[in-house]
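*Target chain*
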Amino acid sequence: MKEPVEEISVTRAMLMILAGPILWAGHFAFAYGTHTLACASAISPQAVPWTIGIATLLVVVLLAVIVWEPTFLRRAAAGWRRDRFLSNLSRMLAVLSMTGILWAGWAALEVDVCAQLR
């Protein structure tokens, strides 16, 4: 006889599915916020590329764990009836988010800080 499947909360499911886009939005805000703060305050513009580069690497590693570590998704999705579909959806969104994070990180490293204000 099959064991009944335990349902998980909608909030937990949505956080798991949207982990990639949430990290993408956070990285985007951090990268461009750092640029803005460097222009508006006394933060050294030379530190901005290093700060954004380190943040980009950290977020990409975190997303890589979501994409390539199936036990992470299985533990997070324990109790889902459509476990495989939602795990694959989460992975696909994480890969898309990783592309956006790498793109924003590359742009932040290539664009001169406060160049338009000089």
User: Anything to note?
Assistant: Helices lie at 10-17, 19-40, 47-68, 70-76, 83-110. The chain has one domain: 10-113. Residues 49 and 111 are 9 Å apart (CA to CA).
